Amino acid sequence: MRSTHLAILLFTLKLGLVVGSFKFQNLECTVHIPRIASVEECRIRAINRTQNLLNLRLHLKETISNLQVNFKILKRERGGWHPFLYSMKVDLCKFFESPNRHPLPAIMFHYVKDFTNVNHSCPFLANTYMELGAF
Question: 123: closest CA among 75, 70, 65?
Fold first, then answer.
């Protein structure tokens, strides 16, 4: 019985019948080694009460051959914000070499790829910008 429900759920998700939405409420952009890169823009712009846009712009000062992104979903509960469902570190160089090995980042990148110029494997060259605009 349980496997039947799971099969129906997976079939429904595959067809795209499940619709959801999300809204960014907080964004932190941090570069741990400032001589390599600098954050030029990191903001959420409100369109209306239910929609907002995410803008990120990172200036690379040196060529990068190892890039890691930390991603967390947080849920507000008693006592503050706590991790919810996912807290992961993704090596972007390895991800672009074989995106199918990382299912959740691959799903996220599918939605982001039309809004960003980060679409190739390492190295990322010096004096260029990594951008995510109007997402």
Answer: 65
